[in-house]
Write a structure and sequence with these properties.
Layout: H1 2-15, H2 20-31, H3 41-53, E1 57-61, E2 67-70, H4 72-78, H5 82-85, H6 100-106, E3 112-120, E4 126-138, E5 141-148, H7 150-178, H8 183-198, E6 202-208, E7 214-221, E8 232-233, H9 240-247, E9 252-254, H10 266-273, E10 279-289, E11 300-311, H11 320-355, H12 360-390, E12 395-400, E13 405-408, H13 411-416, H14 420-423, H15 428-448, E14 453-460, E15 466-477, E16 483-492, H16 494-530, H17 538-569, E17 577-580, H18 581-599, E18 602-606, E19 611-614, H19 616-632, E20 639-647, E21 651-657, H20 680-686, H21 692-702, E22 707-711, E23 717-724
Parallel strand pairs: 18-20
Antiparallel strand pairs: 1-2, 1-5, 3-4, 4-5, 6-7, 6-11, 7-8, 9-10, 10-11, 12-13, 12-16, 14-15, 15-16, 17-19, 20-21, 21-23, 22-23
Helix pairs in contact: 1-3, 7-8, 7-11, 8-11, 11-12, 16-17, 17-21, 18-19, 19-21
């Protein structure tokens, strides 16, 4: 069915009567004995908008890769107009590694080929593209479907980079802890490195004494904040019940110590205020007391101290990886304490046994045993580090060039129910099954050919539940540029997919269940205001005017929310075409003229004939939004001006200037966010929704432009945005 639809789209591209060249092509096919393309006229009309408005870039090429036809999405992807794109060679837009003739030969036994290429646009912009090539949809004509995956690959690389950074930082801190058996050096290295990693203002280790008091014994603090090191705290600052909670593993992440919901006592808040503490993260350092005379079931945990991070200049919300890092480092400190105590015991034993010459042999034997215990403790800590890396909530593996697993972490057993030992040496198909392997096969081949690959897949877990995953393959290339295998990283994105579905459902509900009755209500109020259904009293007319005004504002708010959600969801199509900037300016000012007259504001425009490649409806919407804001916040008798000028770098600049009260410098960036207004009370009075500028920014960004504001208090504001000039 998919091949039939593709063939129909190609036939539509050939049979369109918009231009003579395609008529000539069809005639040439018929003369050469090619199969005739007979499509009913009604089916052509149905397929034409499918071809033109498809989100993916669709193009038709000849045997040499010359572009014969392309839809609007292809023009947008290549950054050229339809006229400038047709006739160009596909290889002209690649980095030289894509040879159309070789690709054709490689897929003669299979009519379809997918892969990736590096697209070089005429404006200098580089995009990573995923392509699908279908050969001979009609004789000597081939269908190419392209999809821009630049942002997806960049996001995957950023996520992978963050995960690598976290593992490297944790390994570095752990290494520094292990490089010394001296407890003071270990604690000092810990607070220093934690402060560097978390960018905290103060990090300290607080030791709890048996009598309930405590003292900070190691600290790293910025110079501008008071030090806490060596200050002893009374028992009231750290009650016994708190010690018991922390001994059971309690972790506290306080974003704002003054937040009433946190539940800190007033006396405690007053105490920590003297150290400029605004936010704090507290992780217990616990020792396991396992007496030789007790069974393991009777072992208990004792609170040794706390690893604490402070933020002093403002509140701070701690993220999950910061909590996990602190907990794991606290575990390392606990191991280091055990090792330090063991070392101290060793030194005492060595000193005593050395003094007793007649018991040298026995003492030496004991010392060896103790040292072996220390080495065993070190090995246990190394194993703990390995378990920590295995516990990362992603699938991590290394696959050799024979597509066999040589390493995989513990997550494979948690997800698939297969132990690392059972998977080791197995082929990908054995682990994932035939269906899943067929979906990943092309990406595996691409990785083994030296390409970094990122894609989404569906896998079935051990409990039979299907999950969506984001998969990245990173080739392992040796010094001779030979691919030895690849690293595989897969993370669960099912929750994100579910949220996206919920968002779409919410938009649909709002569209049908809220906007329609609001529109009906607004129309009914308008009819009542005309007096056709009877004359109201003066008070009634005033109440009706208030209801009508607020209903109109609510309709406008709902429409703005839906517009913004539709743009952000990506389920809209920019129908870009060649437009005259002057025509768009005149259209926008004419639409806003009644509003300007109502407010006593003069609209001044300076149109210039400049050809731009845009969706005219969306650009007019952006201009009217900016003009509406300028009019609402201008005083009667003021002037709002709209002008345009051509810049260098092939860009055109639009500017809307008003003579209003101006915008503070601190608000110039935030006003483009949702529901952000300079003065909310004034905006409510003037009917603002706080979404107009957010919609403008989304529209301009979809056109590869930039929008910003400039303002001086008391002298007005200027809103500017840029758009690319039409090439070709």
């Amino acid at each position: 069915m998919q091949r039939l639809i593709v063939s129909q789209i190609v036939a539509l591209a050939f049979m369109s009567k918009r231009s003579t060249p395609r008529q000539s092509l069809r005639t040439r096919y018929q003369k050469s004995g090619s199969t005739k393309i007979n499509q009913p006229q009604q089916e052509q009309k149905l397929l034409q908008p499918v071809f033109e408005k498809a989100c993916d870039a669709i193009a038709v090429t000849d045997d040499h890769g010359c572009l014969i036809e392309a839809n609007a999405a292809a023009c947008q992807l290549f950054g050229l107009s339809h006229q400038a794109l047709i006739g160009r060679i596909l290889a002209d837009f690649t980095d030289g590694e894509f040879n159309f003739a070789q690709v054709r030969l490689s897929v003669q036994t299979n009519s379809q080929q997918t892969g990736e290429l590096y697209l070089l646009r005429p404006d200098g912009n580089h995009r990573e593209v995923e392509y699908s090539l279908t050969l001979d949809v009609v004789p000597h004509r081939h269908l190419v479907i392209l999809r821009d995956i630049t942002e997806r690959k960049e996001a995957a690389q950023d996520e992978l980079w963050c995960q690598r950074q976290w593992v490297e930082l944790f390994s570095e801190v752990t290494l520094k802890i292990r490089q010394s058996l001296q407890l003071k050096e270990i604690l000092r290295a810990t607070v220093t490195e934690v402060q560097r990693i978390l960018q905290a203002d103060r990090v300290l280790i607080y030791q709890v004494f048996p009598n309930g008091t405590g003292k900070a014994i190691s600290e790293a603090v910025l110079p501008e904040y008071p030090a806490i090191l060596d200050l002893e705290f009374p028992e009231e600052v750290f009650p016994q019940e708190y010690q018991q909670l922390y001994a059971q593993g309690r972790v506290r992440a306080i974003a704002d110590v003054h937040d009433p919901d946190v539940g800190l006592a007033d006396c405690l808040i007053e105490f920590i205020d003297q150290f400029d503490i605004k936010a704090k993260l507290i992780v217990p350092i616990v020792q396991n007391l396992n007496s030789h005379q007790q069974s393991e079931s009777k072992s208990e945990n004792q609170l040794w101290g706390l690893l604490i991070a402070h933020h002093c200049d403002r509140p701070r919300r701690w993220v999950d990886f910061e909590l996990e890092l602190m907990q794991q480092l606290a575990d390392q400190i606990s191991i280091a304490l055990a090792q330090a105590q063991l070392l101290e015991n060793l030194e005492e034993v060595v000193e005593i046994r050395t003094a007793e010459l007649k018991d040298v042999n026995r003492d030496l034997h004991q010392e060896i045993n103790d040292r072996m215990q220390a080495e065993a403790a070190l090995r246990r800590s190394e194993e703990q580090l390995r378990l920590i890396t295995n516990a990362l909530p992603v699938l991590i593996a290394y696959v050799d060039k024979e597509q066999r697993y040589r390493f995989n972490n513990q997550a494979y057993e948690d997800w698939l129910g297969q132990t690392p030992a059972a998977i080791h040496g197995c082929h990908l198909k054995e682990v994932w099954g035939e269906d899943c392997y067929q979906r990943m096969h092309n990406y595996v081949e691409a990785a083994l050919s030296g390409h970094v690959v990122t894609y989404e897949n569906e896998i079935v877990l051990r409990d039979g539940i299907s999950r969506s995953v984001n998969v990245t393959y990173i080739p392992h290339v040796d010094e001779q540029k030979t691919v030895k295998g690849f690293f595989s990283l897969a993370s669960d994105i099912s929750d994100r997919k579910a949220i996206e579905r919920m968002k779409d459902e919410f938009i649909s509900v709002v569209s049908h269940e809220l906007r329609t009755p609001l529109t009906s209500l607004h129309s009914a109020l308008k009819i009542l205001a005309t007096g056709r259904l009877g004359t109201l009293s003066l008070d009634g007319q005033q109440m009706l005017a208030i209801a009508d005004e607020n209903t109109e504002r609510l309709v406008r708010l709902v429409n703005n929310v839906l517009d913004l959600q539709r743009i952000e969801s990506g389920k809209f199509t920019m129908e870009k075409q060649a437009c005259n900037a002057a025509d768009l300016m005149i259209q926008a000012t004419e639409a806003m003229q009644p509003m300007a007259q109502q407010h006593g504001v003069t609209l001044a425009t300076k149109p210039i004939n400049i050809q731009i490649w845009v969706d005219s409806d969306y650009i007019v919407q952006a201009l009217t939004n900016l003009l509406s804001n300028a009019i609402k916040f201008s005083s009667p008798g003021g002037t709002v001006s709209l002008k345009v000028e051509c810049l260098q770098q092939s860009q055109v600049l639009f500017c809307v200037h008003d003579e209003g009260q101006g915008i503070p410098q601190s608000k110039l960036e935030s006003i483009f966010e949702r529901f952000q207004q300079v003065d909310s009370s004034d905006s409510r009075k003037k009917g603002g929704t706080g979404l107009g500028l957010a919609i403008c920014r989304k529209i301009i960004e979809q056109h590869e432009g930039k929008i910003w504001a400039e303002s001086t208090l008391g002298k007005g504001s200027t809103f500017c945005f840029t758009l690319p000039v039409l090439h070709g």
